[in-house]
Amino acid sequence: MGRTVGKVTTAVLISLHLDPRSFMTPKSYQKALGVNLTEKSSGQINGRLRLSKRGSATARKFLYLAALRLLANDPKVGKWYEAKKDERVKIKTVIALMRKLPLALWHIARGERFDAEKLLKVAG
Questions:
Q1: Please, which residues bridge with residue 38 across strands?
Q2: Exposed, middle or buried: residue 50 (CB in 10 Å: 0-12, 13-18, 19+)?
Q3: I need a labelling partner for 30 at 20 to 30 A (CA). Which of 14, 43, 95, 101 fits?
Q4: CB 85 within 8 Å of CB 76
Q5: Counting beta carbons within 10 angstroms of the beta carbon of residue 10, is it exposed (0 to 12), middle (13 to 18) or buried (19 or more)?
């Protein structure tokens, strides 16, 4: 995990009792971190999808920084970002990457190697 998101981020996640090995599925780990999408709606209003933010704010902060680190250091992730980004709201694509990271971390904690092609749909 330290190679993918950094040693500090790994230490923060472990110290917040968010060790990926203690979760049964990748989606449950994503939900524990509070980066899953929820819709606030009522009988009359259907709201937009937003981050649930139910998990630790500190964990989300370090996941965001880890996403920026991946953008800077991994050429496959950079290529995905360039193809996907919207000039008006660039942060939206960074958040999309941040939401994908817990899914990758769950698999990395079980011994798999990080592969950006599995995580992202890279064009061409």
A1: 50
A2: exposed
A3: 43
A4: no
A5: buried
**pLDDT means over runs of 10, the chain (124 residues):** 91 94 94 90 81 91 94 91 87 92 93 88 56
Q: Which of 67, 78, 91, 87 is nearest to 123 (CA)?
A: 78
CB atoms within 10 A of CB 46: 9
Instruction: Write out the two tokens for 7.
Output: 């040693």
Rounded to two decimals, the pTM is 0.86
Residue 27 lies in a domain: yes
Contact 120, 80 (CB under 8 A): yes
Beta-carbon neighbour count of residue 13 at 10 Å? Answer: 25
Task: Confirm whether 124 is domain-assigned.
Answer: no
Residue-number span of the structural domain to which 31 is assigned = 2-119
Count the Cβ atoms, other than its own, within 10 Å of residue 21.
9
Q: Identify the DSSP state of 90.
A: T
